[in-house]
């Protein structure tokens, strides 16, 4: 069972690959990641595929600081709705706690935790927690680079930070200085950032408690912890897996680490089935996508996990008793 990472983690990847003289579409195709999926706010991709892709890209394009470069061109929006919570916490301490608490909404394959080795220092430690996934040097450097940027956005550009990596140095001193702008230590027992503890009480400028409350409510309702009802967890996984083109009962059972028959039996106690949940999510998403005029019908079919547009046509007939074009025309007229 492999975890998923929010597709927005890929933002900047195609542009950086082209800047280095490569073809991003060839890498995306090789690792079975849909082109353009990084623009979908609620789409997810397999974490191992993403990690292997950026490792391979770094090697083949002879760019050992690829992960660092990627962190420099990504913003806080790369972590999705978690960014709204972080920007609107009262203090840096609350933001660090929220980052660790809600990291599952970005990916379940990486854990962020805090530690206080002394009374004057605090660490934010990033750990890969998915078994069987190779240690990704580029992914770690990208993640830590984003942590440094986030900290400076929240606490100010002059906040003193020190970075630690478990692995040895990959790039030149100049590359780390340009990307991180702080001391870097290699061959350490942990990976992450360290900052003075007094920074924790620093207030975040322009924080909006109401915006934070709304974001937390959305996050907890949309990205469910393991205690949520099974049918809701299946629905969440379906939304993530549909754009990848392999959303089925077997795949969802694998993600939940249960046998497919066990999954169906447990869903039956909630009055539904895996296929019914998947179909309901497809129908809901189809209505959203068809109301968006910028999306082509072929794109919509792909986002719903269909390999042929004809499958979308049949489903729309079944769901709405209309063709996709008729749905679009009717709903566009209603919106005007």
Structure, explained:
- By secondary structure, the chain is α+β, with helices and mostly antiparallel strands.
- The protein has two domains: 64-210, no CATH class; 224-335, Homeodomain-like (Arc Repressor Mutant, subunit A, Orthogonal Bundle), CATH 1.10.10.
- Helices cover 51% and strands 10% of the residues.
- It is built from 16 helices and seven strands.
- Strands 3-4-7-5-6 form a five-stranded mixed sheet, with helices on one face. It has a two-stranded antiparallel ribbon with strand order 1-2.
- Helix 4 packs parallel to helix 8 (173-180).
- The protein is globular and about 65 Å long.
- The termini are far apart.
- The model has no long low-confidence stretch (mean pLDDT 87).
Question: Secondary-structure blueprint of this entry?
Answer:
Blueprint: E1 4-6, H1 13-19, H2 24-30, E2 44-46, H3 47-60, H4 66-72, H5 82-87, H6 92-101, E3 110-118, E4 121-128, H7 137-155, E5 162-164, H8 173-180, E6 184-185, E7 192-196, H9 209-222, H10 230-241, H11 249-256, H12 260-269, H13 274-290, H14 297-303, H15 309-320, H16 324-335
Parallel strand pairs: 5-6
Antiparallel strand pairs: 1-2, 3-4, 4-7, 5-7
